[in-house]
What does this fold into?
Amino acid sequence: MISATPGRQNMFTLDYWRRFIKFNIVGLSGVVINEGLLILLVSYGLYYVYASAVAIEVSIISNFVLNDIWTFRDRRHGHPVTRLLKFNGLMLVGLAVNLGILYFGTDYLGINYAVSNLAGIAVAFVVRYWLSVKYAWIKKEAESVIPTDPGHLPEAA
It folds into this structure.
């Protein structure tokens, strides 16, 4: 879809909702990885905040691979390692949100760490989706309708 705003997709299109559904399917796999690894690491005696940081990072990498080859395949450009580093850097914002909610919910509200983690994942999801669409997989500038050659500008009326 060609857009006057590069990197922006109209949410009233079928393509937008397909991408959103794919992102959610990948995200659900990340939740399973995150929660499963968190519980496993805590069961081996690792402090729940450290275990969560590891679990979140593993799920970030897993989500990158799946989103890169499936959800945002048409928006890939540049070297895969560069894309991974960019994605991982952006997702650290979600990691901070998730860990903050996990710690607050567990230590201050007395909620089980696994439940607090799910709450953190839910809130971080919104941040991560926005960052992914806005910054991680941006459409190439060439796809915009803005002409780059001044000789091909539309004539004024």
Observations:
- Helices lie at 14-43, 48-71, 80-108, 113-136.
